[in-house]
Amino acid sequence: MDAHSRQSVVLCRTGPRRLREDLERVLALAGAERLDPARRTLIKFNGNVKRYYPGSNTSRWFLDALLGILHDRGFRDVSLIEGDLPQFTVEEMLRHTALDRVLARHGVRCINYEHLPRKDHLPLLLEDAQVLNTPTMHTHGFAVVSCATKNLFGLLPVDRWRHHPALSETLLDLAARVSTFTVVDGTVSMYGDSTRTGTPLRTDLLGAGWDNLAVDVVAAKVLGFSLEQVPLLALARQRGLTGPRAEVIGDFAWETLPDFHVPFTRGAARRLSMWLEGLSGDGVLPRFTSRLLHQPLFRLYAGAVGLYVELNYLRNRRMLRSGPWREYELPE
Q1: Higher pLDDT, 178 or 163
Q2: Cα 86 from Cα 20, distance rounded (Å)
Q3: d(CA 131, CA 121)
Q4: How do residues 250-264 score in pLDDT, each as one tens digit?
Q5: Residue 205 neighbours by CB under 8 Å, 6+ apart
Q6: What is the DSSP letter of 20?
Q7: How far apart are CA 298 and CA 305, in angstroms?
Q8: What's the predicted TM-score (pTM) here?
Q9: Confidence class of residue 283 from pLDDT cuts 50, 70 and 90?
Q10: Contact 42/131 with Cβ under 8 angstroms?
């Protein structure tokens, strides 16, 4: 892979019966041979919810295929990594989503870095390791579009919500500090203003690239957003870190990218959350609300959000367990 193609983004179609085969092709097109099987390999996956919720977490079927490919290529020192959320621990999430079964099948562990040593907010375990970033594509109440760079936000400590008032700046800092090879699980995406209550959408895509911002440019277009609508990408373009489009290879070119044009609105609960965290719709931090982050009112609200998420899951459980994504599901 030459210097020019390092900014290329691979995007290919896939389906339940050919997922591993297509993932092999995506890795080859993206230059995965640059990865060293002898090095320690850490997979930063999406771990947003502790329920079976397709489109939110990196899927079981995607991780199963990826871990199998890495093993066949001679990778032996492989671990998944993730940090706690205020509502649950990594261990709870793995158990409730049955991701622990996938890890056991491949003899791979998941490292919870929440209480491990850090340097400048980032876990020290990232040093001397090659990092695979495996996000999903979804809309997000704060970021509008969440994919490659937003997944790195989970590397920050559990109180990472403190960075919401400067989210785009924080994400650009992470993109510059954390070098990754990103492989996008686009089998199922999601739209809505929360990764825990959104609507799954089967998109049958796999993507990959070495430049997280370029990957995000493609993800935004696939979901139907312009760069100006995504705060991270608008700021990145303003700073000259990305252009208005990306070089796309694989089954698509930039001009032929799919456009799912997913709906995006912020509901009343999200707007209240943004107000309590001191964020107006345009990202301005009003001084009179900024201190609410440290007050019992906010913590009470956070508990109410947790209850709302559980009720939403119960209401949608039948849909989640009977949608078209079930064709991807692994045998018991």
Answers
A1: 178
A2: 34
A3: 17
A4: 999 999 999 999 998
A5: 11, 12, 13, 14, 137, 184, 186, 187, 189, 222, 258
A6: H
A7: 10
A8: 0.91
A9: very low
A10: yes
Q: How far apart are CA 153 and CA 167, in angstroms?
A: 9
CA distance 38 to 324: 38
Length of the chain: 332
CA angle centred on 10, ends 99 and 106, rounded to 5°: 25
Q: Count other Cβ atoms within 10 Å, centred on residue 109.
A: 13
DSSP strand E in the chain: where? Answer: 9-13, 41-45, 78-82, 109-112, 118-119, 122-123, 130-134, 136-140, 144-146, 180-191, 199-209, 248-250
pLDDT tens per residue, range 28-73? 999 999 999 999 999 999 999 999 999 999 999 999 999 999 999 9
DSSP SS3 for 5: helix
Q: How far is CA 140 from the centre of its chain?
A: 11
Strand partners, 43: 80, 132
Please give the share of the chain, as a percent, with pLDDT higher than 70: 87
C-alpha span between 247 and 5 (Å, rounded): 8
pLDDT at position 272? 66
Q: Which two tokens stand for residue 113?
A: 């870095």
Residue, of 139 and 268, whose pLDDT is higher:
139
Amino acid, single-letter form, for residue 40: R
According to the model, what pLDDT value does residue 279 have? 55
Q: What's the token pair of residue 309?
A: 């998420």
Q: Angle between the 231-238 and 167-177 helix axes, to the nearest 10 degrees?
A: 60
What the chain holds in terms of domains, given with CATH numbers, is 5-266 (3.40.50)
